[in-house]
Amino acid sequence: MNCQRTQDLLEFLLDGRLQGEVLRQVRKHIVSCPACRSGLSPQDMMEILPVLDESIEPSEGFSPRFYAALDGRHRTEPGKKPQPASSKSMRILIWSKGLVAAGVLAVLVAAGIYFRQSPSRIPDTSAVFYELEVTENLAFFEDMELIENLELFEDLDTIENLPQTY
Amino acid sequence: MEAALYWSSVIDMVEDTGAEVLDLDAQLMLRFKNGDRSAFDRLFTKHTRSIVNFAYRFVRNREIAEELAQEVFLKVYENAAGYSARAKFTSWLYTIATNVCLNEIRKPQFRARHQPLEYLRPDGGRDEEMKIEIGTTVGPDTIFERQAIAAVIKDALERIPEKQRIAFILNKYQELSYAEVAEVLDSTEKAVKSLIHRAKEALAERLQPLMSELLPK
User: If you count DSSP H runs as helices and E runs as strands, how many of each does chain B have, helices first?
Assistant: First the structure.
């Protein structure tokens, strides 16, 4: 890159319309050429900051580390659709499995609590059944009472039918 | 006639730069979306350096920058289904990268371990092996000089508002167009130009007194 070419491209640089190798060459030339940068304002000079700043190369281990992490999370066969773990159907399947497991756990816990209750806490139903039986046979019991007190009733009858002596 | 041809070639060069690249990226992403893992590998290889350096602008630490870049590419892999060819691939990629980097620098522990400018020592206390773009032979003094310059720039960048800094880095360092930066920031081109203009003003205010020392005479 020479001074003439740099001056020609300066307008593009300041408009933010240069990219790639051309941009880098123009910036480098401005950094190394006091004549070309003499006409630039302090704000325009900020265009060359990326050349002055440091840049790094990814370490050699970056790529293998990334693919190890990727394979750890997604064991996708080449040619098959990617992102299996994040696909909608997979998410629904994972959710439904979780729900089934939670349901089974809840049933087991409830059963455990139920069977651990002492027998005294289970209501005694024999009295209830007795009362039910009494209610159903009430007429019979009334008749029984009448029979048992028949003598008394007969006496009462006799008393009522006594001749009046006064 | 010669001048016209020259300008035509310059304009073609300017317009072509990026346009073809973006189309190719979008095609690769769509191929990956349809199950072609090799398309993802090509995108990864092509953008690794840019994304590692983008993250490095925020954290200034190689290990953390690589961790963040790894996270970015994992997200690209996992969210491929959500990629739409309507969005330029670079805009989509840098939207993910920007979110990942901002999440990192907003963490309280990041602020705690963040090294101030004074930390830089002449005996070299940094783990970064820098790539020197100007000059061919580099001695220890030059490396230290470069580190000092980088530290001054880093300090100046950190002092400007976050949105201005992101817009400036995306446009000047990552070479995204105004339209692409606007897409990343979910803003307009006009707003992005304004952000970059203000960033340049703020940076010039801080760096102008040092520029004569930073640049070769």
Answer: 9, 0
